[in-house]
Amino acid sequence: MGSAASTRNRQRKQGCERLGITILQLEEVDAVVQDRCQKECWPQVTKSKPSVQQVVRNFVKPEIKGKKRSYVEIKFEDRVSPPSWFSCHPWSISHASLVLGLRHLLDRHGETDATSVWVAAYCLYQHDEVSHAPDVVLPAVFGSRHLCDIAVHIDSQREIWRRMWCLSEILASATHGGEAMHVSFVAVEESKSGETTACSLSDHPVAVTESESERRSRDARFPLSAFALNRPIAIDTSCATLQEDEEAILRQIIKESGEGNSGSHASRSPSSPKQHPAYLKANTLLRVKIEAAAMRVAVLAQDEKMQGALLRGAQNNETLRGELKQAIEQAQSLLADPSPPKRAPAPAPTVEELQILGQGPAAEDLERSTSSKLLGARLGYLLEGFPLQAQRSTGQEDPTFHEMSKTLALNKTGLGYNKLCPRDGRLHCSVVDALAAGDARRASHFLSWCWDYRLQMYLQTWTQWRSQHHAEAFIWQCFFCNNQYRLQEGQQVTDESLGDIFQTRLLDIQQMVVMLDKFMQPKYLERVWCVYEMYTAAANSDRVTVDIMLPPDQAADIRTKIASGVWDDIRKKFQEVNVEHAKARVQRDEDMVKEHIKKGAGFDAVNAKVREKMMAWVLKQVEMFLLEDGKVRSGADFLRTAGLADYIDKLEEQGICTFEDLEDLEDADLAAIGFDPAARERLLQVVKMGPSAREETDFKDKLRMLGLTADVFEGLSEDEVMRNRNMEERLPTLGDKKKFRKWRQSCLTGEAVVEELVALDMLVERGPDWCYDGDSDDDMTPEDGGPQGVGKVVAWCSASGEAFGPVAPRPGWVKVHWQVTGRKRSYRMGTPERSAELVFAAAIADAQAARALSEVPKGEIQLHHLRCGFGYRCGTRFSHYALFDNRMEACEKVAAFKPGDVVEDKDGDRATCVGLKYRADAKKVDMWFHCNGRDGAGLFTHASHDRCLRKVAHKRLQEVSRDDAEGASDGEIDHDEREWVGQNLKPTLKYLSKSGQVLHFDVRDEMVRCFRMPFRSGDILVDKADGERMTCIGVASDPMRQLAARQRGGRRVPGSVAEVWFHVESSEGAGLNPKMHKMLSRFKVVDNRPVLEHVALGSSDAWDMETALGLLASLDGGLQCDFSFPRGAGENATPDFFDVRPELVYNVVGFRPGDVLTIRGGPPGTRLTLIGLRPDPDTGEISVWWHHEDFQCVHAGAGKIPGWEHMRQMMRDTGEKVNLEELKERIRSRRGRGEQGHGDLPEMLSQLSAQLSPADLQQLMGALMR
């Protein structure tokens, strides 16, 4: 037994105690999750709030795929700490609610941001082969008792009380074998206005700063409804997703009860739970935990009705009834005799006082005090955890450090409040002493900065700096590292301690980073502390390095000012530095620092050192500017760029136009030209800061200018680096990789999207082979948002089948998420044999689109301005799922309403604004409203929303998921799937189309299902709108439409690849409905009958296309072309020879030479005369040749009809037969009329089929006769 117990304890610690995630890390992950959910449009997410289950499926699993470790082990490998809290929650709970509840609970308990929590989603490996193994998960669950506290999250649906995993976790805390394990309940409630609040209830006193009366008041506000007391709570009636999990948990309960091996119960199975006393005992323990907490709330809230109900429910359970009575007594004693509020503790004696009393710290404590003064905050924390704390504590998006100090470094909300300071042994320490061990280490950099700086500028500047310095840095910054509590008490820095803070400390760290807020006239040089720090570093330049950094926008401003040739202005501004005029926020500090300077080096020496340091930095910026690619190296433009505009005339007169010319000049040469000493000094200075000897920079300089380490690409050419997407793996940080991707995107702009170049998240747009648009009169919205639409690659699959990204398409295809329409569609990647349907877009496409919207006048917003991402029902009747643009900045371009606004028209009818959507039929963007009583969003018919509608209220608009509607605007089969279906059809049924074509149908259910329709072949559908019936036939492609698709140059033809066909009862044959995927709610299946073959009369012995084409191919080399007939039209008609043997031609075409034909659907007077066979002079292929004429035109010779075999069934024999010799003579006598006869042929052919629009067939047959 002892061995088994120790093994079990070891398993528990491995499963639970080893891993945890801090609340700061969890908040960081939640921010990423919410952003990813919005951008990637996760399915089935309601109210834009993904559940924990959805986060695991869409975020955690992809992040850890193939790595065999949990998320915390991968993401926070060097910062994983053992947990002290266990989070118990159903996986259906909103992820945001989970994080908010934990934050509330930890704050109330006085926990720090470094407190670690065990959360299953992040602390367990979440892939199927492991996560569903009960023997792996159970040690973690039943190991929860080895922690200090358990947080029980009650979700809005109260699902937690029905989930076996959750109840088993609460049970584990109730059967704790050691010290009492604290249980806290937390619920996050959402008000009608959409605001969320968290409340909690604990079975123990919480933070030392919370008095008993405060605890009483907060506990009384906990909602009793959260306990779901109207339903039984029992472990044996709850459920888990997997049956084997239920059995494993129930076995574990028996095992933990100690009764699993007893003779009387050993044979009893968990499948009959109520017979086993272990379950009854477990249920009692659960009810004690839950109902005792509910009783506490009922007593504190003075809800006598609930108290009575709880007691009545426990009347048959003595143990439970006794616990409830005890809970009543404890709560009533608090109401009767509230304890006085706690007093703040007296200040602890100082280190010196303890030493006098003989109670001083040990040597290691003194060492800890010394090392504390040199601690720095981890830069990663400054950029990730700190901003959230600052914004939440101040309530501001962009506070100054003065404002942040009041909430983070001082007062009761300070991070160091009530924590022992290692420097003096008293309560309240510096921020850095309160940080987690991994976030505070010996400082590597000393920051010189201003307290007036704002948070966003601070973050942007550090982010830019970190992108150029890859090793993790620990920053000594007075805000974090000085104990602000002591400074507030009056222990200001004295004159004697200045050397310790700014010299001793700086010399020990040896690396100073100066943060400027702007390039010209920075605030930094106006502050006396800053100037003195710069002087200290400059005076010790042999030991201290200085790195000056700017915000990204100011770094760009340097280049602008240098390029504008204002060098003299720049130099003058930095020469104006004067420490004697610098200020401090506190006059006493200013006087003290200046007095210290007077006693030391003096103002002039300090000014000179600081000016020298700043000028050296400015010269370096100018040099970097002149080294950039694209900068001119000769002529007046170079002289002007170099800041020599005033000297252009004199220099050019002497033939000095390039940098090399300037390099050859000496002071005597300049004097001879006529320059005064000041000008000569200026010119020679430019030479010193000019470009190096090489003529131009290579691509590595471009990367360096972006802040990247180009050394990792040593020995590689630009083409090798740019065309290999895996090159980014050589870069150490995510920031570096993002910059590299942006550079690579800009280099590849306009190139075809091919397998060798494509990568996830790259921006793309339609390419030269784009073929998914309809006609100009088509009422289909372009899926990419039109020619200006930009999309992001979200998945792709190589030709060999290697998939990248979630839900990858078929091999050789790439899946794109279009920004305008919100749709995700797949497209072919380019190959050597085929141009690309997509090309790479410009790297700045996103920013350009944002600027474009801001400049659009009201009423002129276009399709490409939209960003549709909000799901809602579309259509006032038989609605379908569609995506709308619900951005307020976009809506205001149409009308003065925003999504959620309830409006009323002049008739009193009310509707709710949904957002913007493109109207393909009207070719405009309009605002859509959901009228009361209608299925979904629709349109008002009045001319102006602003004039005809008025806002009467506003409500929270509930987003609709795709599963809530039967059809969807983007619910059609994806392009790669359609292509696959077309290539894998196995026709077994012949059926006539409306145009008279006999099509071959595949009627297999699996093929019909590919089109995302809930139908089968043979289903009889009733149209709910008009009662008309139609039958689902199956899947087929139309050869005529295939021909049309080849001729249309970029416009789609429904049915050309594969489509589901339906036969409407009033029609002669099967047809298509290209919008069927949006109209699913309109049709109801009422019956299913096998589809029988349906072909034209007399078609049993009809001409067969495959036989004819096979015969035609076999004639190669066997023709007898001995009949002379003109070939071509107009002046291009030339004599040629044809094979006109009647039986041979008949076997191929089904007609004989000289037969006169018409085409079904063509205009009267149209005549096609079959001439014969001969090879095509361009391709050498044997072709069928025809002569065309009508009332206005007689062609001058024979021509080909591309795709004649697809039109063959539409040809009708007139019974007339023409002698070809006579036809030849008639053509000769009418020669010339054919020159103007081309115009009517497309018109005739446009009427060939009712299934294709005239525009389609004009494009299709424009080249019919050559």
From TrEMBL:
Q: Which InterPro entries match?
A: Mib_Herc2_sf (IPR037252), SAM (IPR001660), SAM/pointed_sf (IPR013761)
Fetch the Pfam families from UniProt: SAM_2
Superkingdom of the source species: Eukaryota
Q: Where is this region: Disordered?
A: 257-276
Q: Where is the SAM domain?
A: 627-693
Low complexity: which segments have biased composition?
Answer: 262-272
Q: Which SUPFAM superfamilies match?
A: Mib/herc2 domain-like, SAM/Pointed domain
Gene Ontology terms for molecular function: metal ion binding; ubiquitin-protein transferase activity
What name is this protein filed under?
SAM domain-containing protein
| Species annotation | Symbiodinium natans
